[in-house]
Write a structure and sequence with these properties.
globular
Length: 206
């Protein structure tokens, strides 16, 4: 089993990375393989809804999105981490997730996911709510912890001093590992994943 932890910060080894490393440590202790995927610090284009990826499986924009999508079929769980920018996720992560999740419910369905936010002081709960919506619309079980999945600090050494935040990250890793193992045990016991009905797409006019 493998979990990929997405670092949506423009800083490769900053506060968000520090939080994700704490989650990763708990996952590894539980025998779960991991990879931290940094989306980088170059601009990430937003989705223009052209639909070309639905035909080819790849976005026509050549950046980290396609590299990430190639990994997804072999990944069992996801953690998306971000710094808090104006009570929201980083603009790069938002654009990244828009394109990653566009039209790909079947690629992510029934795979556990979680969001992690790193903030100086506030805005973390709004940020977590934003990211969790991607999971909620994709049939993905959302993994929680003992508190909101956030850490506080202006620099990595501050985050390490956030004892409750670090403990929350460790608990998140343990909970993710437990759920992944439970799903695997269910499969071995013959419990099939839910068979979902075809999507009925309506609007409020018809």
């Amino acid at each position: 089993m493998k979990v990929i932890l997405v670092n949506g910060s423009p800083n490769s080894k900053g506060c968000t990375y520090t939080a994700l490393k704490e989650v990763e440590g708990s996952l590894n202790k539980n025998g779960i393989d991991t990879e931290i995927f940094w989306i980088g610090n170059k601009p990430v284009a937003g989705c223009i809804g052209c639909g070309s990826c639905l035909k080819t499986g790849k976005c026509f924009v050549q950046d980290k999105v396609n590299e990430f999508l190639e990994k997804v079929p072999k990944i069992d769980g996801f953690v998306f981490g971000t710094p808090v920018h104006f009570a929201a996720s980083s603009g790069m992560l938002s654009s990244f997730m828009d394109r990653v999740f566009y039209g790909r419910r079947n690629l992510f369905s029934n795979k556990p996911a979680s969001a992690v936010a790193s903030c100086r002081r506030g805005g973390a709960t709004a940020t977590l709510d934003e990211i969790n919506k991607y999971f909620g619309i994709s049939n993905m079980p959302i993994v929680s912890s003992q508190y909101w999945n956030m850490v506080h600090g202006s620099k990595p050494e501050d985050v390490v001093k956030d004892e409750e935040g670090m403990q929350t990250m460790r608990t998140l890793g343990n909970n993710m590992a437990w759920l992944l193992k439970s799903i695997e045990a269910g499969k071995r016991a013959g419990i099939e994943l839910p068979k979902n009905e075809p999507i009925i797409a309506t609007n409020f006019i018809r």
